[in-house]
Write a structure and sequence with these properties.
The complex is a heterodimer of chains A (141) and B (89). Chain A has 141 residues and is an all-alpha fold. Chain A has a domain of 75 residues: Histone, subunit A, CATH 1.10.20.10. Helices cover 69% and strands 3% of the residues of chain A. Chain A is extended. By secondary structure, chain B is mostly helical. Chain B has a single domain, classed as Histone, subunit A. The radius of gyration of chain B is 16 Å and the shape is globular. Classes of the chains: A mainly alpha (141), B mainly alpha (89). The interface between A and B is large, with 57 and 58 residues. Strand 1 of chain A pairs parallel with strand 2 of chain B.
Chain lengths: 141, 89
Amino acid sequence: MSDREFGNNDDLSLPKATVGKIITEILSHDNGITFARETRDLLIECCVEFITLISSEANEIAEKEAKKTIACEHVTAALDQLGYPDYIPEIMKVAHEHKTQQVTREKKQSKIEKSGLTEEELIRQQEELFRSATNKFNAAP
Amino acid sequence: IEVRTKFPVARIKRIMQADEDVGKVAQVTPVVVSKALELFMISLVGKAAEEAKARSSKRVLSSHLKQAVQKDEQFDFLSEIVSKVADAP
């Protein structure tokens, strides 16, 4: 179930196990109701079609704005156009969370780069920290 | 309904870019599409389950999913996909 490129260029589908888990979560409050395997597979087709639908619409919207990159705002506009405006508040929440995480990611990356240390030096320092922490832990009564 | 399991974001991006017209995609975009997909699934799975229950079935079959699709305008784009499914007896 790797997402790496080798050989699987035609795998434009979603992993069955993942979709299965999500179905179970959605139906968790619904005593005993399960999806037949064929239904799960059919649902996967519907999901892929949904992604394609949104992408296509978002792409058109981006193109009309002469933008070369599909951004979040194009996706929300697409959802609105296609009759899914109720999804937009949740989407905005996710986009915001992602932006916040991105700032943290960039700060961490920048700190590593600014330290001017090589990867070997960083690993050595990390091992030193682990050793010192272990010693402190073992020394305590 | 809270869903903890997430779709693979890289896979979603691949599906999006399978469309030749689609070029670059911002980093946040597949994440956002993943959320939309989750909401879509909650809706469709829920409605299919309702159809099964209406027929006193504990197993949701393809025919139930087909019924759910046909009953809601929001799912019109899926009519071709479900057309191959036999109708419930």
